[in-house]
Amino acid sequence: MKCRSIKVSSTKLIAKLIAAIVIAFPFALNAATPNHIQIALSSTNEAVGWYEEYLDCERVVGRNDAVVCGETNIEFFVGRTVGGSQGSAIDHIGFSVPDLDAKMAELESVGVRGSGVRLIRFDDGALVRDIPGLFKIAFITDPWGTKIELVQDEAVIGFHHIHLNSVDPVAALDWYNQVLGGERASLKGMLDGVRFGDIWLLATQFNDGRPGITQGRTIDHIGFQVADLDAAAAEMNQLNVDFRQDPMVPERGRSDAKQAFILGPDGVMIAVVEPGWEGIEEEAFSADNSDSEELYIVPRTPWGEPDFQGIWTADAAHGIPLQRGVGAGEAGELTPEEAAARRERGTLNSIWGYDREWRDTTLGYVRSAPSTQAAMIIDPPNGQLPETTEAYKQLVANAPPRIPPQRARTPVDLGTYVRCITRGPVGMMMPSIYNNGLQIIQSPGNIAIQKEMIHETRIISTESREGYGDGLKTWLGDSHGRWEGDTLVVEVRNLNGRTSYLGSSADMKLTQRFTRTGPDTLRYEFTVEDPAVWTEPWSGMFNFIRDDSQYELVEYACHEGNYGMTNTLSAARTIDAREAEEADYQE
Known about the structure:
The chain has two domains: about 25-60 and about 80-220, Roll (2,3-Dihydroxybiphenyl 1,2-Dioxygenase, domain 1); about 310-545, no CATH class. Strands 18, 19, 20, 21, 22, 23, 24, 25, 26 and 27 form a ten-stranded antiparallel β-sheet that branches. Strands 5, 6, 7, 8, 9, 10, 11, 12 and 13 form a nine-stranded mixed β-sheet that branches. An eight-stranded mixed β-sheet has the order 2-3-4-1-14-17-16-15, covered by helices on one side. By secondary structure, it is α+β, with helices and mostly antiparallel strands. It is built from nine helices and 27 strands. It has helices spanning about 1-25, 45-55, 100-110, 170-180, 230-240, 335-350, 390-400, 425, 565-585, and strands at about 35-40, 60, 65-70, 70-80, 90-95, 120, 130, 135-140, 145-150, 160-165, 185, 190-195, 200-205, 220-225, 240-250, 260-265, 270-275, 310-315, 375-380, 435-445, 445-450, 455-460, 480-485, 485-495, 510-520, 520-530, 540-545.
């Protein structure tokens, strides 16, 4: 009896000790593990490709909105953000690579054009900094504003850390340790943090007020997994953790796993999920720019002409290629998802050095949805430019090599676009990544068309005129309009030959047709006739979308003395001087 009594007492004592440990350290027996980082952006499929290519992550099988980087998923969702991660409660995420110098050289050689890789230089201009006792570090951002630290930590290759901003880093790290488990530790004895397996949670003192909350920024939240979410939630409630969503199976969840949301220190949103979590299915993409042409009656001006007045944008047409691919078959349309992905690729491929705030075509920021049109050329029927003439081919073959911008000798060696003079009568109408506004103002017998890009304005007379004669040759030519029913037809001639489009000559005849097909849609068609260059005329088409409520034409503060041109010439002279110095040295 006595032994039995001792045995029962020992069992009770062990049970009490375990209970005390669980209360004091909630996840000591059921610790959380990092599960995912969720990033808000404008195109999930393009993000998957970017993280695959540049950070060696792998696409999650069966999903087009997630990659796995080591043991951690990065999930993407389409969401409008107010800025990147920098300065928010989650400042950046970190990846470790075997050779940081080689990695940054690779990214620098690719450049921002065509990839959207943004390099962040240190104050001395260097891309890589070696921290004695720690490791080498560098910073980049993805195309959507997520700040990423690249480090060379031989101990862990792949996803490496989550870096927080905090008004009290010590208290914040203690909170994560107490609520989510992990090991309170120091990275190489230099950076305090909480370690979850191979992944570090680090925190830096934020001295500029309070960091921004994560919701509404590119890194929307971080996710941790627990074995039993209901039990974990009960333990968190004992610690007065702020729940923003109780455990539940979310709508459109890909599995039956539950998810809860809690608020961490400094405004970090944290998802806590059960095993088997597979993310949330994206909502079906739905967008339509088209107005029904059925029974549409074009409004009239007080003097009886079709009324085209207002502000229109070509944002929806950005990304439509001029030509259809060889072998693509008959002209068709893309699905809305394909159109959105194409638009995002077009935006990234033309990003140059611009931040997202400059790119009017960023998905989610513009009212008009991406056009599903396959290509602009509608004639010839194959959607491709016609053959060039033999005389033109000979002219091109015998032409002197074009002087590249980095070797420009004078401003004349640079294009009229770089010099902010004009894009020409064809190019000025084409969509780009920004400044796609078009304003139309009418008066009896005249129509003014102002294009936002390079602030070009055309005054088009619709009064009767006999021929063009040998009038003054100008950059945009001589435009004359006439009405054919509800369509404005504009013929452009007398070009000065200095605004060539795809090799067009000074004898090019351009015919433009504007037709209002609905309350918010203006169909634009153009036909190029240039027998000196092409064996037959060719025509293209796309739509402008009316946007008086949101869009405003702003000043295009560019001129022939712009920084881009002067800096290009200055760089060319620097290259000349360096090459001359190298030549002298070799002699």
